[in-house]
Amino acid sequence: MATAKPPPAQGKNDADDATENSQAPGGGADVVDVAGAAPVRHPLRWLAVAVLAVLFAQLVHFLTTNDNFEWDVVGSYFNAEIIGRGIATTLELTLVAMAIGIFGGVLIAVGRMSENRVLSAVCGAYVWFFRGVPVLVQLVLWYNMSALLPRVSFGIPFGPELVSGQTNELITPFLAAILGLGLNEAAYMAEIVRGGLLGVDPGQTEAASALGMGPARVLRRVVLPQAMRFIVPPTGSQVINMLKATSLVSVIALSDLLYTVQSIYNRTFETIPLLIVACLWYLVMTTVLYIGQSYIEHHYARGADRNAKQSFWDFAFFRRRPAHAGAAGAATTTEEDK
Amino acid sequence: MTGHDGTQTPMVVAHQVRKHFGQLEVLKAVDLTVGTGEVVVLLGPSGSGKSTFLRCINRLERLDGGSIHVQDELIGFRRTPAGIRHLKPREVTRQRRDIGMVFQHFNLFPHLTALANVIEAPTGVLREPKNEARARALELLERVGLADKADAYPRQLSGGQQQRVAIARALAMRPKLMLFDEPTSALDPELVGEVLATMRDLARDGLTMLVVTHEVNFAREVADRVVFMDGGRVLENGSPQDVLDNPAHPRTRSFLSRFLTASPAPER
Lengths: 338, 268
Fold this sequence. Notes:
The complex is a heterodimer of chains A (about 350) and B (about 270). With about 350 residues, chain A is mostly helical. Chain A contains 16 helices and two strands. Chain A has a two-stranded antiparallel ribbon. In chain A, helix 5 runs antiparallel to helix 13. Helix content of chain B is about 35%, strand content about 25%. Chain B has helices at about 50-55, 90-95, 115-125, 130-145, 160-170, 190-205, 215-220, 240-245, 250-260, and strands at about 10-20, 25-35, 40-45, 65-70, 75, 75-80, 85, 100, 175-180, 210, 225-230, 235-240. In chain B, the strands form three sheets. A six-stranded mixed beta sheet of chain B has the order 8-9-10-3-11-12, with helices on both faces. The chains are: A mainly alpha (about 350), B alpha/beta (about 270). The interface of A and B includes residues 207, 209, 213 and 215 of A.
């Protein structure tokens, strides 16, 4: 093989100039066509698949033959109106707490990046406190706020009161939940937003400033749209985490999805089927959020990749362009040409 | 000095400009005048302070001493009866409108198409109607030879094309002065020519330009005046022939010898 005569080999190759040039003169490799080569075998992978198949069969057997699941009970509660109300509360909490979290997070992030040391230290302390205390503790703390402050009043500091009221009337379980979840979320969102803003090349701010754009316009038109690429993916997971974290409010007797199923099974003792109803609904909601997140990420990847180009309407109507179909098609044709 | 300045109001008058970053003195009393319509090339080794000086002119850096006037307007500060005061951000922003800048790394807005990059400031800052700004942006892209790339995103363009879009973006604000901060230093050698050709074209049209570059040949051909800086000071200031062929200072001679030898300049 190694001693093949160069002149005839070159004669055979003259249809293909490129290979002729790329071959070392003394190499003399035979003409080989790699099409149809046998693939590498992976016996361990096959073993793993077999093990998984057995485990899956066991799981199906367990789910279908164990009467304690009481699937008929699951079915009867799945569409129950009371469960629907619990879901509504869970979604409402998620939405309001995330809104507070995002709005507060942007403010705190901008405050932390301020040149004013006091402002940035106060915002840093906020993040330190609310990230450092478990959400569950914060929820219980807000719920019991009346023990610390029996009355709340709004007015001029150290001056006359304008409005005041009993803390117990003011802080309902829902408000306690909103405050606990929202203020905690603001601390996490502040770090996400700050990370996103810091991720944008400072040259972008310089270029925009050099064009005579003011600081607010630079932030709105140049920095934020680029920071969104770094902010949106972690914010999506924060929404999903928030949806799950709302189940903690069951400790302060707020009828979210979990508290609702708990209050039913405390009466009927159908514990497992009702918990399965809750699991299924949580899965449905998080799945919808995962799908939404992937579309939003795709939207903000505009300009980030040479192929991605999608209008808002394509995004809104779920028209996704197959970004790599062209490249893949080209690759197959070249293979066939050979 | 050439006869450009003195006949009319100079575009830029820098007087004893000082700047330090911490302990490091980057500019030590720099004096420089750029006449209206003049093309001045700033040469000098890395760290000589030429880019910092350029960035002081549109107040991307705050100067620590001396003064810079652009068309008789004090940059970054205001004279009051009580003394000199810093300008508010809004006033600094207004002063930057008339001074275009082109950066070494282009700094195009990657989330906007070439056309959107060019119309962003005219529509947002000058409140030009969108269709007018658009028509003018297309003219400018045509002028830099990129009319067909109007809808391309920066990442879809080569470095040379990106830099030409960046030049069009700066021109869209109708600047009276253009600052170029090493506009070809980040480009592959074969892309340098297209950017220099665009700049040569602007110089021919009488635009006032202050260019920091390592392109000695561009300086020789296009510049009205060449300034050599080293260690935060201006060492030479004269016509391209004087500075490039008969440098007075030994430091200039050793710097230029690297570019004038037959072998290509070593990459640092």
